[in-house]
Amino acid sequence: MTRLELNSKVNELYQNNFDTMLKGFRDNKDQDEISYDIEEVYEDTQSFGDLIDFFIEEEKCTEWDVPYLVYSILHDPENTYKFFVIE
């Protein structure tokens, strides 16, 4: 699998999981209303890379958090919101 094929497959998974992830935020503790920012990023490009860039640039996570977010968004989207819950 080439890098472009892998990027395409990851973006496809992200796009398929997006509504589930968004629902997880909105049905639970959508602190700071981050789901609306996430939705805006998605509407712009539907690119998983842009979402990760957004999280890092807005200091919602660090580059060290990216592997956990990638796994969560691609494999457990309904629970991704838990990463951002401040208790």
Task: List the main descriptive attributes of the protein structure presented here.
87 residues, mainly alpha, 0% strand, 4 helices, globular
Task: Outline the structure in words.
With 87 residues, the protein is mainly α. Helix content is 66%, strand content 0%. It is built from four helices and no strands. Helix 1 (3-27) packs antiparallel against helix 2 and helix 2 (34-45) crosses helix 3. The model has no long low-confidence stretch (mean pLDDT 89).
Q: Secondary-structure map with pairings?
A:
Elements lengths: L2 H25 L6 H12 L2 H10 L8 H10 L12
Q: Structural class, please?
A: mainly alpha
- Give, in order, the helices and strands: HHHH
Ends: how far apart?
41 Å
The general outline is globular
Quaternary class: single chain
Q: Major beta sheet, specifics?
A: none
- Which residues form runs of ≥5 with pLDDT under 50? none
Q: In what range is the share of β-strand residues? A: under 5%
Give the overall pLDDT as a whole number. Answer: 89
Question: How many DSSP E strands?
Answer: 0
Rounded to an integer, what's the Rg over CA atoms?
Answer: 12 Å
Count of individual helical segments: 4
Q: Portion of residues in helices?
A: 55-70%
